[in-house]
Design a protein that fits this description.
A alpha+beta (about 280); B alpha+beta (about 725); C alpha+beta (about 160); A: Uridine Diphospho-n-acetylenolpyruvylglucosamine Reductase, domain 2; Enolase-like, domain 1; about 35% helix; B: alpha+beta; Aldehyde Oxidoreductase, domain 4; seven-stranded mixed β-sheet; six-stranded mixed β-sheet; Ald_Oxase/xanthine_DH-like (chain B); Carbon-monoxide dehydrogenase large subunit (chain B); AldOxase/xan_DH_MoCoBD1 (chain B); AldOxase/xan_DH_MoCoBD2 (chain B); Diverse_Substr_Oxidored (chain A)
Chain lengths: ~280, ~725, ~160
């Protein structure tokens, strides 16, 4: 097995172009499980931890651009107020030890339906920035996932980072059968923007890929009283929950049943809506 | 009995620092997985992917051809007995023509690197003819049926409640996986360094399978990373020894987590049907029960588990009329055997659920209905055995009931079900309180010749009296080494006590299971110390020992302890037995089968998100009679730990099987409680001496596991109103 | 096979290992620093927790070659009041999780001292290390013996 160790982004892209079957590794918290259990023996590993720009975040116009190598810990500590939904999700990733190392870029790269970072990125309408020696492209995150552990990432591409519009009210909730260190049975993220009067959603662990509940989004953006920010009628919350559940296509597995997941998603949708809307009503835009 | 009242520090009833504590917090304690020898090879095991299949052929050619491979062995290479077993010799060392459960060992490999060994094992080609698997206990072959009949089988009652209950397959999930090092010896034997619960039962089985006399198979206890019953059966002991003898090199085997799930027995899944009949004022008239246990592919300790389920299966209650049938069956599921509280755990979930149901039917408080039926000293078990010694069932219940209520939640997200996963800010959260009480036998039962051996040596080291205690008793984390030293200090009045590493150069101590070791090996150490003391006094015609002096009858100082030992060390080895027990009558189940009973009660307070089915246990209050807290800190540790495992069974722990295939052999999917799942506890320890046991002590380790499960489930029922007849309770059971 | 140079407990170590090897396997199988334990090999138990530049990580999910030039501290290099506190409060039974618990607790205390919010803290201001906060921050280390109450007490004592 080769070990590629670029120290600049250009070197990293060149290495990936030369070794398209190399597996990129940053914090290692996903890749190492595969290596330890001998499920995967890639011909090469591409270490991205020396590529400094990957660990940076900053603004890009009116978007926030976060490097793929920013750890969950830093999302919580440095971006908690700008990206509250993602920070809430980051808090539920593995353990403190894993949050010290794991990165959102790695989560995207693995493209697991249970990845905790995906629902808030979906809800926030994030763009994933993919790069190769051929150039850079920005893919809307809801077009990024292609199947269980599959994405639109080309063999010569690396995930450079993601871009997201900060602000709005964001919530994230994750069901697990233990009070810590648990893989999601299902999860849900909600993002409300007063500015654009739009609703974003993200569902985790309840379909072959993380996904948006677009019908639920459209319904809610129509029904919410954006002007006066009046209370959400229970029937609207109920319907929103039903539409979120309907968007999922869960299965029965060791972590939970399909029926439970659908039910739980509708509950999470209603609750996160109440919390997010309450935030608007109390704090204002 | 004359114990020394010399005020020596660190004796019985105190909590001295555990001697292994310093090593453990510095990372210097050598666990079985940490061992190393020059020239060492690594072993790996090929296991069956099928729950049931005929083996038409095994081709090892490709494995042998891999560079770095030193041995590839199958059942044909087992020189002695091809099978082993704790109670019934039925489990093949390596599969012979047939595999009966997923994970059954088929071949073993030794190589110069662990990965090479694993890759070689994967290259072995096994030609399987897959056969239908029996995965339903009731369809399996009967392994043992334990009937119990007392009173009138046709008794009737005013109020009758019935229920069917199920317990899933729990795993001991010790953190330190199966591992050990086998070193071939010059005499043709083997020295095995191993994490186990019972060195001598391992020794006998390994020697039989190797075709060696026992004295050529020498076992030394390596550091044990938790046990909880899972190390009572053999795992890699014979395999590593075979490979070592075959290659002439030391062989180390270490299971990974996934393999560990296949490498040891589990708690028996159970289906239980109960019918309780009571008078209108809540006195039990009769209990009829049928318990079906899934024993899996091989017997392990199934027969004893069935006996426990039967004999303890109506709980710590006085019931005049009992019809009980507990049966265990062979299936093609993984073998089930010992896990903390075995047999008693399953039944307790059922009978305590029934007591709550009865309370509800009668409109009584759940504790009240228990109090009206609580057994006490002199009560008669359904086996006819009279409960001797304290049986403070009512007292324990009253104590947990009268503890102050758990504090109200503050609304902090961290205190909510789901915690920072942010599933509720209080929506749907309902508090519930539940109770449970259980009964467990201590030590081995049914006429088993249960004994422990201790060798105690009193000598001068650097001019000072010192004691060396040597037993084969397995320290598995429970603090047995601490306790052995405490007993020697108390009995001999000598502070300086060393406990030698456990090995087979001294006689058997029996198993570190059945809550028996402080009783049994503790008893043996005490007896050996008393023998040493008697020999010491005899040297100078003294009457007693006090403050480092030998005194006469009148209290005059005859000699200094050091000067008496100066004539030469005194060493005594004692084999110590508890009072005999007797077999159960095979038809009526009558008999004095158990030597001691132990009791614990729990009160659990939970917050349940009733819409999502998520639970946070807010507080657990427990009371347990330990007879005598030989080491109060360690007693509390056992109660915490046992309670945590019972909580795990209540809410999350289950090996999930589909058609004989384990679906969750990992710590990401077999969930055990974290520090956020285990609440603060209030522990009330009673010390009501048992007149027959050393210092009056009572076994401690298992009772807390038994009653915490029903208490937690009862609390969830109280919050949700759901019947919840199966553990672990899953969110979909609560919202469904 | 590249030669790996690691700085562990203030000493330089060399090992010839394949690139895919975890830091945990290098510690245990190549350098015989066996104080760090393997419980699950997939980051789900915390037994293999070590400190890297003072920060806690699970060494089973750490690719060893990524840690060249970093200051790695394993339990063998720890000399901390927490160790005695664990013994005093019976924060261990079998002891298999203990090295990871202690490294994790040391990392946790310095995270807290540096003002890092816990997973729970809504505001960025660090919370006092209450018993609940200690549990929250120690939720990545499983103890199957169930010595959690002793562990929490030991950490509480050292923290205050």
């Amino acid at each position: 097995m080769d070990f590629l160790r670029p120290s600049t982004w250009d070197e990293a892209l060149a290495a990936k172009a030369a070794h398209p079957d190399a597996v990129p590794i940053a914090g290692g918290t996903d890749v190492m499980v595969e290596l330890n259990f001998d499920r995967r023996r890639p011909p090469a590993l591409l270490d991205l931890t020396r590529v400094a720009p990957l660990t940076e975040w900053g603004t890009d116009g009116d978007l926030l651009r976060v490097g793929a190598g920013v750890s969950y810990r830093r999302i919580i500590e440095e971006l908690g107020s700008r990206l509250p939904g993602l920070a809430m999700a980051s808090r539920t990733v593995g353990s403190p030890q894993i949050r010290n190392r794991g990165t959102v870029g790695g989560n995207l790269g693995s493209a697991s339906p249970a990845g905790d970072a995906h629902p808030p990125l979906l809800a926030a309408g994030a763009l994933v920035e993919l790069a190769s020696v051929r150039g850079v492209r920005r893919v809307p995150v809801d077009g990024f996932f292609r199947g269980p552990k599959r994405s639109v990432l080309e063999p010569d591409e690396l995930i450079a980072g993601f871009l997201v519009r900060p602000g709005g009210a964001q919530q994230f909730a994750k069901v697990g059968t233990r009070n810590a260190m648990v893989i999601a049975v299902c999860s849900f993220a909600l993002s409300l923007s007063l500015e654009t009067r739009s609703v974003g959603t993200g569902i985790g662990s309840a379909a072959p890929t993380p996904l948006r509940a677009t019908e639920a989004e459209e319904f809610l953006s129509r029904e919410l009283d954006w002007e006066a920010r009046g209370p959400v009628p229970p029937s609207v919350a109920q319907r929103f929950g039903e539409l979120v559940a309907a968007a999922a296509s869960p299965i029965d597995d060791v972590r939970g049943t399909a029926a439970y997941r659908s039910h739980a998603l509708s509950v999470l949708a209603r609750r996160t809506l109440a919390w997010a809307w309450k935030g608007f009503r109390e704090v204002g835009p | 009995m004359t114990t020394v009242e010399a005020g020596v520090a660190g004796g019985v009833g105190t909590s001295p620092k555990r001697p292994d504590g310093g090593l453990k917090v510095r990372g210097e304690f050598a666990f079985s997985s940490d061992l190393w020898a020059d020239d060492m090879l690594w072993g790996a095991t090929l296991r069956s992917p099928h729950p049931h299949a005929r083996i038409r052929g095994i081709d090892i050619t490709a494995a042998v051809a891999l560079p770095g491979v030193y041995a590839v062995l199958t059942h044909e290479d087992v020189p002695g007995a091809k099978r082993y077993g704790l109670e019934i010799v039925d489990q093949p060392v390596l599969a012979m023509g047939e595999v009966k459960y997923q994970g059954e060992p088929v071949a073993v490999v030794a190589a110069d690197h662990p990965e090479t060994a694993r890759r070689a094992a994967a290259r072995i080609v096994v030609d399987y003819e897959v056969l239908p698997a029996v995965t339903e206990a009731s369809l399996g072959v009967l392994l043992r049926h334990v009937p119990i009949r007392t009173g009138d089988p046709d008794a009737t009652a005013d109020v009758v409640v019935t229920g069917e209950y199920q317990v899933g397959m729990q795993d001991q999930a010790f953190l330190g996986p199966e591992s050990g090092l086998a070193v071939p010896a010059e005499d043709g034997g083997v020295d095995l360094y191993i994490a186990t619960q019972w060195l001598h039962v391992d020794q006998k089985q390994v020697a039989d399978c190797l075709g060696l006399p026992a004295e050529k198979v020498r076992l030394t206890l390596a550091g044990v990373g938790g046990a909880f019953g899972a190390r009572e059966d053999l795992s890699m002991q014979v395999h590593a020894s075979l490979l070592a003898l075959h290659t002439g090199r030391p062989v180390k085997m270490v299971y990974g987590r996934e393999e560990s799930f296949f490498g040891h027995v589990h708690r028996h899944p159970a289906t239980m049907w109960y019918e309780h009949g009571a008078t209108r004022d809540g006195k039990l008239v009769y209990v009829k029960a049928k318990i079906v246990l899934d024993g899996g592919a091989y017997a392990s300790s199934s027969t004893a588990v069935a006996a426990n389920a039967a004999t303890l299966g109506i709980g710590p209650y006085e019931v005049p009329n009992v019809v009980m049938d507990a049966s265990v069956y062979y299936t093609n599921n993984p073998p089930c055997g010992a896990m903390r509280g075995f047999g008693a755990v399953q039944a307790c979930f059922a009978y305590e659920s029934q007591m709550d149901k009865l309370a509800s039917a009668l409109g009584l408080d759940p504790v009240e209905v228990r109090l009206r039926n609580a057994m006490t000293t002199g009560s008669r078990m359904p086996t006819g055995q009279i409960v001797e010694g304290p049986a403070p069932v009512a007292d324990l219940l009253i104590r947990v009931r009268s503890a102050p209520p758990a504090p109200e939640g503050s609304g902090d997200l961290r205190e909510m079900p789901g915690g920072v996963s942010n599933t509720t800010h209080g929506e749907g959260v309902v508090r519930g309180i539940g109770y449970g009480i259980g009964i467990k036998n201590v030590a081995f039962s049914e006429g088993f010749d249960d004994y422990a051996t201790a060798r105690v040596r009193l000598e001068l080291i650097g001019g000072e009296p010192a004691v060396l205690v040597h037993t084969a008793a397995a320290e598995v984390g429970q603090g047995l080494v601490t306790v052995q030293a405490q007993i020697a200090r108390t009995e001999l009045g000598v502070e300086r006590v060393t406990v030698a590493t456990a090995d087979t150069s001294v006689g058997s101590a029996g198993s570190s299971s059945a809550s028996r070791q402080t009783y049994m090996t503790g008893g043996a150490v005490r007896a050996a110390c008393q023998a040493v003391r008697a020999a010491l006094l005899a040297r100078v015609g003294g009457a007693r020992l006090d403050g480092g002096k030998v005194l006469s009858d009148s209290g005059a100082v005859i000699a200094d302890l050091a000067s008496v030992i100066g004539d030469g060390p005194i060493e005594e080895t004692v084999e110590w037995r508890h009072r005999p027990t007797y077999p159960l009558d095979p038809v009526t189940g009558q008999g004095n089968a158990h030597v001691q009973y132990a009791f614990a009660a729990h009160r659990a307070t939970v917050d349940v998100d009733v819409e999502l089915g998520l639970v946070r246990v807010v507080e657990i209050v427990t009371a347990q009679d330990v007879g005598k807290a030989v080491n109060p800190l360690a007693v509390e540790g056992q109660i915490h730990g046992g309670t945590a495992q019972g909580l795990g069974l209540a809410l999350m722990e289950e090996i999930q099987m589909v058609d004989g295939i384990v679906r969750n052999p990992s710590f990401t999917d077999y969930l055990i409680p974290t520090i956020l799942d285990m609440p603060p506890m209030k522990v009330d320890v009673l010390e009501m001496a048992d007149p027959h046991s050393p210092y009056g002590l009572r076994g401690v380790g298992e009772p807390p596991t038994i009653s915490s499960t029903p208490a937690v489930v009862a609390a969830v029922r109280a919050a949700t109103g759901k019947a919840l007849t199966r553990v672990p309770v899953r969110p979909e059971h609560i919202v469904g | 096979m590249p030669e790996l140079r690691l700085r562990i407990n203030g000493e330089d170590h060399k090992a010839d290992v394949a690139p895919q090897v975890s830091l945990l396997d290098v510690l245990r199988e190549h350098l015989w620093l066996t104080g760090t334990k393997k419980g699950c090999d997939q980051g789900a138990c915390g037994a293999c927790t070590v400190l890297v530049d003072g920060r806690r990580i699970v060494s089973c999910l750490a690719l060893a070659v990524q840690y060249e030039g970093r200051e790695i501290t394993t339990i063998e290099g720890v000399d901390h009041p927490l160790q005695e506190a664990f013994v005093r409060h019976d924060g261990l039974q079998c002891g298999y999780c203990t090295p990871g618990q202690i490294c994790s607790a040391i990392g946790m205390l310095s995270e807290h001292a540096a003002g890092a919010p816990s997973a729970a803290t809504e505001a960025l201001a660090p919370e006092a290390l209450t018993p609940a906060e200690i549990r929250e921050r120690m939720s990545g280390n499983i103890c199957r013996c169930g010595a959690y109450n002793g562990i929490a007490e030991a950490i509480q004592e050292v923290a205050s």
